[in-house]
Structure formats: structure tokens, C-alpha cells
Design goal:
Rossmann fold; binds magnesium ion; hydrolase; 2 domains; alpha/beta; seven-stranded parallel β-sheet; HAD-like_sf; 304 residues; globular; 16 strands
């Protein structure tokens, strides 16, 4: 079981073949004081949510002001998040409650990217779906026969959408793995993160229950969020829609997790900025972690 960022980090190191391939050319990074320091070379800023803009239910001190400063300079700003528990309406509301002013077309989340693919590649006639999400957020599609972990029929669902680790636990996981071993079925992962930082401790995200599945079950897992390419393709099409073509080197991915934000951003050719003070690495040795992961950001800062 993954109970800390240290555990999550070790887990990432143990599954390199499940991560995007990326050859780092550099072995150093530049430490900066704040995100506005790179505004001359960057046009588009992609902010991760948890660990960069907020921790749990609290906005990070000064983050709202920094995002507003970039906007005032004419910079383009998006949130690129693996959050999948809430739908887009809920996400916009969440960031508004924190004091950020993001419209829905400025938030790119892995749940939406996954749902687009799911709806494009499947149909309600293919059978029922088991949706792993807390009750208040249930009913994620219009036409599918949805079943939830509380229902006896959940275990016989023909496909699974794993949107949230909130409410899931080791006992349910063991039962699920057994059911999948008896009959493997497609697993659509809304949030590929292993953990997310909370004010105290961490939350277990769908990635911690799916990226770690043994083969052959892992071959049934479909991931769309960071660090995997689909969410970043969606980012590029949003940028093209809003501003036309932009060179990848003028785009910066800013995140707190080496194996999702930094790895995924670097694999796309974006500049990368690692935030160390409040997220995944807040209690870890940053330099040591970078060297162990062999994932080098372009820039490093404590807080945006
Ligand atoms: Mg994060």
C-alpha cells in the first residue's frame, strides 16, 4: 500500500516500462524565485492543480496573485490536472472558491479527456459500466447502465471507469482484482496519479490501484492523464484553438510531481518547472529525488 510520497516515488521507480519514454539531455536545472521570472521566454503556462495551486481544500499562498500577474502580462494560462472526482462544472467552482478565475475552457482535466475517448470508442449496447466514484458525484454518463461499488451488480460490470480513490480501499481492491482475474475487463483510469497531497498526509488516487496491477491485468488499463500523451494532445489543441500554433519550447508545464507533470511535459518538448514546497516533494530531498528519477526539470522553485 502506498502511504506516503516516499512510497509513491518508489512505486514510480519500480514501473519504468509503464511511464512515457523520455531521454533527458540535461543534468541540471535552474532555481528561480517565482514563476514570473521566466515570463520572457514562456508564452503559455500550464499549471498542475494539487501541490501547485492548492493543497487539499486550501489555495496555496500567493498562487492566485501570481496567476493574475501572468495574465496581466498577456500570458496564456491553463490548469492541467488529473483531478477526476468532479465534472467540469464542479472543477470550475472549486477553483473559483480558491479565488482563481478559470473558465471551463481554461481547465484541461484527465477525466474529460478520458470520457471523450470512452464515449467515442464504446456504446451503451456494449454492456454495463462499473463507476468508481463517491455517491455525490455518481451518474457520469447519460445513456450507460452505471453501477457503483455499493451495488452487488457492480462486480459483474462489463467495463470499469475509475474516477476517484475516495471511498475505495484495500478490501474493495482485493475483491475487484479477484473479479478481474476471473474475467478481465477494460479499465478506464480518470486520474493516473498515485497520490495527492492533502493538508495532512496524502490521498490515494486511482493510479495507485491501477498502475500497479500485475500483468496481464495491467494490459486492460487505459490512462489518459499526465504523464500520458492524450491529455497533452488535448492541451495543444486548446492552445491552437485559442491562440494558434505555439512552439512547444514556449510552453511550460508547472507541477509538483516528477513522474507526472515533469516527465509528461518534458516528453512533449515543453519547458518544465518543478514546485517543491507544498506538494509531492515537500518532505523529500529534492536533489536526490531528481537524480534517482533521472527526470530533470528546467526550473525549480519552492512555490509559484
Ligand atoms: Mg500535483
Amino acid at each position: 500500500m502506498i502511504n506516503s510520497p516516499h512510497d509513491a516515488f518508489r512505486t514510480y521507480l519500480s514501473i519504468p516500462e509503464r511511464m512515457p519514454r523520455y531521454l533527458d539531455k540535461q543534468h541540471s536545472y535552474q532555481v528561480i524565485d517565482n514563476i514570473c521570472q521566466i515570463s520572457e521566454e514562456i508564452d503559455v503556462f500550464l499549471f498542475d492543480g494539487y501541490g501547485v495551486l492548492n493543497v487539499g481544500k486550501t489555495a496555496i499562498n500567493g498562487a492566485v496573485e501570481q496567476v493574475n500577474k501572468l495574465r496581466a502580462m498577456g500570458k496564456k494560462v491553463y490548469v492541467v490536472t488529473n483531478a477526476a472526482t468532479q465534472d467540469m462544472k464542479g472543477l470550475v467552482q472549486k477553483y473559483q472558491n480558491f479565488g482563481f478565475n478559470f473558465e471551463c475552457d481554461q481547465i484541461i482535466n484527465s477525466r474529460e479527456v478520458m470520457m471523450q475517448e470512452f464515449l467515442a470508442r464504446t456504446s451503451p449496447e456494449q454492456g454495463s459500466i462499473g463507476v468508481i466514484v463517491p455517491k455525490p458525484y455518481c451518474r457520469v454518463t447519460a445513456d450507460y447502465d452505471e453501477r457503483y461499488p455499493e451495488d452487488d451488480s457492480f462486480w459483474d460490470a462489463d467495463q470499469f471507469l475509475f474516477l476517484s480513490g475516495n471511498g475505495w480501499n484495500q478490501r474493495l481492491q482485493e475483491r475487484w482484482v479477484q473479479a478481474l482475474q476471473e474475467r478481465p475487463r477494460p479499465i478506464w483510469v480518470g486520474n493516473a496519479d498515485l497520490i495527492a497531497p492533502l493538508e495532512q498526509g496524502v490521498s490515494h488516487e486511482p493510479g495507485s490501484y491501477t498502475l500497479t496491477l500485475d500483468e496481464p491485468l495491467y494490459s486492460w488499463v487505459n490512462c489518459y492523464g499526465k504523464p500520458y500523451r492524450p491529455i497533452f494532445e488535448q492541451v495543444l489543441s486548446c492552445i491552437a484553438r485559442d491562440y494558434g500554433e505555439v512552439e512547444p519550447s514556449q510552453v511550460a508545464m508547472i507541477g509538483d510531481t516528477l513522474h507526472t507533470d515533469i516527465l509528461g511535459g518534458a516528453a512533449m518538448g515543453f519547458k518544465t518547472v518543478l514546485v517543491t514546497g507544498s506538494g509531492f516533494l515537500r518532505d523529500m530531498n529534492v536533489q536526490e529525488s531528481i537524480e534517482q528519477a533521472r527526470i530533470y526539470p528546467d526550473y525549480c522553485l519552492t512555490s509559484i
